[in-house]
Specification:
The chain has a single domain, classed as Aldolase class I (TIM Barrel, Alpha-Beta Barrel), CATH 3.20.20.70. The chain has eight helices and eight strands, in the order βαβαβαβαββαβαβαα. An eight-stranded parallel β-barrel has the order 1-2-3-4-5-6-7-8, surrounded by five helices. Strand 3, helix 3 and strand 4 form a beta-alpha-beta unit. 41% of the residues are buried.
Length: 221
Amino acid sequence: MVEISTSVLSVKEEEAVKTFYNLETAKTDYFHIDVMDGKFVKQNTIEKMQTYTNVIKQISNLPLDVHLMVEDVEANIDAYLPYEPNLITFHIEACKDKQEVLKHIQYIKENNAKVGIAIKPNTSIEEIYEYLPLIHLVLVMTVEPGYGGQKLIPETIQKVKQLREYINENNLQIDIEVDGGINIENKEELKHTGANILVVGSAIINSDNYKDTIKKIKETI
Protein backbone atom coordinates (compact mmCIF):
# COMPACT_ATOMS: atom_id res chain seq x y z
CA MET A 1 0.00 0.00 0.00
CA VAL A 2 1.15 3.52 -0.76
CA GLU A 3 2.23 5.75 2.12
CA ILE A 4 1.19 9.36 2.67
CA SER A 5 3.57 12.12 3.68
CA THR A 6 1.42 15.11 4.54
CA SER A 7 2.96 18.48 3.76
CA VAL A 8 2.44 20.97 6.60
CA LEU A 9 3.27 23.94 4.38
CA SER A 10 -0.32 25.19 4.16
CA VAL A 11 -1.20 24.59 7.82
CA LYS A 12 -2.41 27.77 9.52
CA GLU A 13 -0.19 28.82 12.42
CA GLU A 14 -3.09 29.43 14.79
CA GLU A 15 -4.38 25.90 14.11
CA ALA A 16 -1.03 24.09 13.96
CA VAL A 17 -1.22 21.99 17.14
CA LYS A 18 -4.78 20.87 16.45
CA THR A 19 -4.00 20.13 12.79
CA PHE A 20 -0.91 18.05 13.57
CA TYR A 21 -2.83 16.04 16.15
CA ASN A 22 -5.69 15.48 13.70
CA LEU A 23 -3.30 14.40 10.95
CA GLU A 24 -1.75 11.79 13.21
CA THR A 25 -5.11 10.38 14.26
CA ALA A 26 -6.13 10.40 10.58
CA LYS A 27 -3.24 7.97 9.89
CA THR A 28 -0.80 10.01 7.88
CA ASP A 29 2.48 8.11 7.67
CA TYR A 30 4.88 11.07 7.76
CA PHE A 31 4.96 14.80 8.36
CA HIS A 32 6.53 16.41 5.29
CA ILE A 33 8.63 19.46 6.19
CA ASP A 34 9.14 21.85 3.25
CA VAL A 35 12.28 23.87 4.04
CA MET A 36 12.76 26.78 1.62
CA ASP A 37 15.41 29.48 1.87
CA GLY A 38 14.10 32.21 -0.45
CA LYS A 39 17.12 31.62 -2.71
CA PHE A 40 16.88 28.14 -4.23
CA VAL A 41 13.15 28.86 -4.45
CA LYS A 42 11.36 32.19 -4.00
CA GLN A 43 9.50 31.39 -0.80
CA ASN A 44 11.23 31.41 2.60
CA THR A 45 9.85 28.96 5.16
CA ILE A 46 12.95 28.52 7.35
CA GLU A 47 11.46 30.00 10.50
CA LYS A 48 7.97 28.56 9.98
CA MET A 49 9.20 25.01 9.41
CA GLN A 50 11.50 25.14 12.45
CA THR A 51 8.55 26.25 14.56
CA TYR A 52 6.28 23.54 13.15
CA THR A 53 8.93 20.86 13.58
CA ASN A 54 9.39 21.85 17.22
CA VAL A 55 5.66 21.52 17.79
CA ILE A 56 5.42 18.18 16.00
CA LYS A 57 8.28 16.68 18.01
CA GLN A 58 6.53 17.68 21.24
CA ILE A 59 3.21 16.05 20.41
CA SER A 60 3.92 13.25 17.93
CA ASN A 61 6.20 10.27 17.34
CA LEU A 62 5.45 10.10 13.62
CA PRO A 63 8.53 10.21 11.37
CA LEU A 64 9.71 13.48 9.88
CA ASP A 65 10.24 13.67 6.12
CA VAL A 66 12.45 16.75 5.64
CA HIS A 67 12.64 18.20 2.12
CA LEU A 68 15.41 20.79 1.72
CA MET A 69 14.80 23.30 -1.07
CA VAL A 70 17.86 25.36 -0.19
CA GLU A 71 21.23 26.47 -1.54
CA ASP A 72 23.18 25.79 1.66
CA VAL A 73 22.38 22.12 2.06
CA GLU A 74 24.81 21.27 4.85
CA ALA A 75 23.74 24.12 7.14
CA ASN A 76 20.12 23.05 6.81
CA ILE A 77 20.96 19.40 7.40
CA ASP A 78 22.58 20.54 10.65
CA ALA A 79 19.47 22.54 11.56
CA TYR A 80 17.27 19.42 11.38
CA LEU A 81 19.53 16.71 12.78
CA PRO A 82 18.57 17.56 16.40
CA TYR A 83 14.97 16.57 15.53
CA GLU A 84 16.11 13.07 14.56
CA PRO A 85 14.32 13.02 11.19
CA ASN A 86 13.56 9.73 9.49
CA LEU A 87 14.57 11.15 6.11
CA ILE A 88 16.44 14.18 4.79
CA THR A 89 16.10 14.92 1.08
CA PHE A 90 18.18 17.50 -0.78
CA HIS A 91 18.03 18.69 -4.39
CA ILE A 92 20.64 17.57 -6.87
CA GLU A 93 20.28 20.99 -8.53
CA ALA A 94 21.64 22.61 -5.34
CA CYS A 95 24.97 20.78 -5.71
CA LYS A 96 27.80 22.11 -7.84
CA ASP A 97 29.40 18.72 -8.59
CA LYS A 98 29.41 14.98 -7.88
CA GLN A 99 31.72 15.38 -4.89
CA GLU A 100 29.23 17.66 -3.18
CA VAL A 101 26.38 15.20 -3.76
CA LEU A 102 28.44 12.36 -2.28
CA LYS A 103 29.47 14.52 0.69
CA HIS A 104 25.83 15.24 1.59
CA ILE A 105 24.85 11.57 1.20
CA GLN A 106 27.62 10.45 3.53
CA TYR A 107 26.96 13.20 6.08
CA ILE A 108 23.26 12.40 6.37
CA LYS A 109 23.97 8.68 6.71
CA GLU A 110 26.60 9.29 9.39
CA ASN A 111 23.94 11.08 11.40
CA ASN A 112 21.51 8.15 11.33
CA ALA A 113 18.95 9.51 8.87
CA LYS A 114 17.85 8.08 5.55
CA VAL A 115 18.92 9.96 2.43
CA GLY A 116 16.76 11.22 -0.40
CA ILE A 117 17.68 13.09 -3.58
CA ALA A 118 15.08 15.34 -5.19
CA ILE A 119 14.84 16.45 -8.81
CA LYS A 120 12.88 19.31 -10.35
CA PRO A 121 10.48 18.73 -13.26
CA ASN A 122 13.03 19.83 -15.88
CA THR A 123 15.90 17.74 -14.52
CA SER A 124 16.65 14.51 -16.37
CA ILE A 125 16.09 11.37 -14.32
CA GLU A 126 19.39 9.95 -15.66
CA GLU A 127 21.31 12.54 -13.63
CA ILE A 128 20.70 10.62 -10.41
CA TYR A 129 21.18 7.04 -11.63
CA GLU A 130 24.75 6.77 -10.34
CA TYR A 131 23.65 7.73 -6.82
CA LEU A 132 20.77 5.26 -6.51
CA PRO A 133 22.81 2.44 -4.88
CA LEU A 134 23.82 4.91 -2.14
CA ILE A 135 20.46 6.41 -1.17
CA HIS A 136 17.08 5.37 0.20
CA LEU A 137 14.64 7.50 -1.79
CA VAL A 138 14.17 9.62 -4.89
CA LEU A 139 11.76 12.54 -4.69
CA VAL A 140 10.33 13.39 -8.10
CA MET A 141 8.87 16.88 -8.09
CA THR A 142 5.64 16.91 -10.10
CA VAL A 143 5.43 20.71 -9.84
CA GLU A 144 8.06 23.44 -9.74
CA PRO A 145 9.20 23.59 -6.10
CA GLY A 146 8.49 26.74 -4.13
CA TYR A 147 4.86 26.90 -3.12
CA GLY A 148 1.83 24.69 -2.52
CA GLY A 149 -1.47 24.38 -4.33
CA GLN A 150 -0.06 23.91 -7.85
CA LYS A 151 -1.42 21.52 -10.47
CA LEU A 152 0.58 18.40 -11.26
CA ILE A 153 2.67 18.62 -14.45
CA PRO A 154 1.54 15.58 -16.54
CA GLU A 155 4.94 15.07 -18.19
CA THR A 156 6.54 14.28 -14.83
CA ILE A 157 4.53 11.05 -14.55
CA GLN A 158 6.65 9.51 -17.31
CA LYS A 159 9.78 10.23 -15.23
CA VAL A 160 8.32 8.24 -12.34
CA LYS A 161 7.63 5.31 -14.67
CA GLN A 162 11.14 5.46 -16.14
CA LEU A 163 12.69 5.58 -12.67
CA ARG A 164 10.67 2.61 -11.43
CA GLU A 165 11.66 0.55 -14.47
CA TYR A 166 15.34 1.36 -13.90
CA ILE A 167 15.12 0.50 -10.18
CA ASN A 168 13.44 -2.83 -10.93
CA GLU A 169 15.87 -3.72 -13.73
CA ASN A 170 18.83 -3.11 -11.42
CA ASN A 171 17.31 -4.84 -8.36
CA LEU A 172 17.54 -1.73 -6.19
CA GLN A 173 15.54 -1.18 -3.02
CA ILE A 174 14.56 2.48 -3.22
CA ASP A 175 11.39 4.37 -2.46
CA ILE A 176 9.94 6.72 -5.06
CA GLU A 177 8.25 9.75 -3.55
CA VAL A 178 6.28 12.23 -5.64
CA ASP A 179 5.44 15.76 -4.58
CA GLY A 180 3.17 18.38 -6.10
CA GLY A 181 -0.47 18.69 -7.03
CA ILE A 182 -1.41 15.20 -5.83
CA ASN A 183 -5.04 14.51 -5.01
CA ILE A 184 -7.73 11.83 -5.08
CA GLU A 185 -8.23 12.28 -8.84
CA ASN A 186 -4.64 11.67 -9.97
CA LYS A 187 -3.22 9.44 -7.22
CA GLU A 188 -4.06 6.20 -9.05
CA GLU A 189 -1.94 6.99 -12.10
CA LEU A 190 1.04 7.83 -9.90
CA LYS A 191 0.71 4.55 -8.02
CA HIS A 192 0.53 2.54 -11.24
CA THR A 193 3.69 4.18 -12.58
CA GLY A 194 5.63 3.15 -9.48
CA ALA A 195 5.44 5.81 -6.78
CA ASN A 196 5.03 4.40 -3.28
CA ILE A 197 5.10 7.57 -1.15
CA LEU A 198 2.80 10.45 -2.07
CA VAL A 199 3.38 13.92 -0.64
CA VAL A 200 -0.02 15.51 -0.25
CA GLY A 201 -0.64 18.96 1.17
CA SER A 202 -3.60 21.08 0.12
CA ALA A 203 -5.79 18.12 -0.86
CA ILE A 204 -5.67 16.92 2.76
CA ILE A 205 -5.32 20.16 4.72
CA ASN A 206 -8.19 21.84 2.86
CA SER A 207 -10.48 18.82 3.12
CA ASP A 208 -13.34 18.52 5.60
CA ASN A 209 -12.25 15.11 6.85
CA TYR A 210 -8.52 14.27 7.00
CA LYS A 211 -9.09 10.61 7.81
CA ASP A 212 -11.49 10.07 4.93
CA THR A 213 -9.24 11.90 2.45
CA ILE A 214 -6.12 9.99 3.48
CA LYS A 215 -8.00 6.71 3.29
CA LYS A 216 -9.25 7.49 -0.22
CA ILE A 217 -5.77 8.44 -1.42
CA LYS A 218 -4.30 5.25 0.01
CA GLU A 219 -6.99 3.03 -1.47
CA THR A 220 -6.13 1.26 -4.71
CA ILE A 221 -8.91 0.95 -7.26
